[in-house]
Amino acid sequence: MTDTSKLNDEITESQQNANKIRCQFCNSLILTPNNAKFIEKEFSLPLMHQKHSRNLDELETEVFKDFWVVDDMFTFENIGFSNTVGDYKYLICADCDMGPVGYHILSTKKNYIALVRVKHEK
């Protein structure tokens, strides 16, 4: 999400999500407004649609830098967690299993949702 004007529409003055965050595939509600904080942090997530095998060594990834951070996993309205991969679990939509939309760090218990992997709705 590099378009600054669009990004400004999604973030409150206190750097929180101004709008509902929904799955871009099934429209399921993931987060309500003012429950996540904007952060810039580079992280590689696997592509939602892999062209090759599902072998972890061959996963195709994409780098993101704009994330919503959620401190407590119970803040989510709807989210699913993948199996553990190193110190991470990937976050997916619990209704349609699409993702990953973000990741969870086991050691810090923080959750990160990539802004471009979800839909924002007023």
Descriptive overview:
- By secondary structure, the chain is mainly beta.
- It has a single domain (4-121), classed as Metal Binding Protein, Guanine Nucleotide Exchange Factor, Chain A, CATH 2.170.150.
- It has one helix and nine strands, in the order αβββββββββ.
- The strands form two sheets. Strands 3-4-8-7-6-5 form a six-stranded antiparallel sheet, with no helix packed on it. A three-stranded antiparallel sheet has the order 2-1-9, with no helix packed on it.
- A hairpin with a 5-residue loop joins strand 7 (102-105) and strand 8 (111-114).
- The longest helix is centred in the first third of the chain and has 7 residues, at 4-10.
- The protein is globular.
What does this entry show, briefly?
By secondary structure, the protein is mainly beta. It is built from one helix and nine strands, in the order αβββββββββ.
Give the secondary structure arrangement, pairings included.
Layout: H1 4-10, E1 20-23, E2 29-31, E3 37-46, E4 61-70, E5 80-85, E6 88-92, E7 102-105, E8 111-114, E9 118-121
Antiparallel strand pairs: 1-2, 1-9, 3-4, 4-8, 5-6, 6-7, 7-8
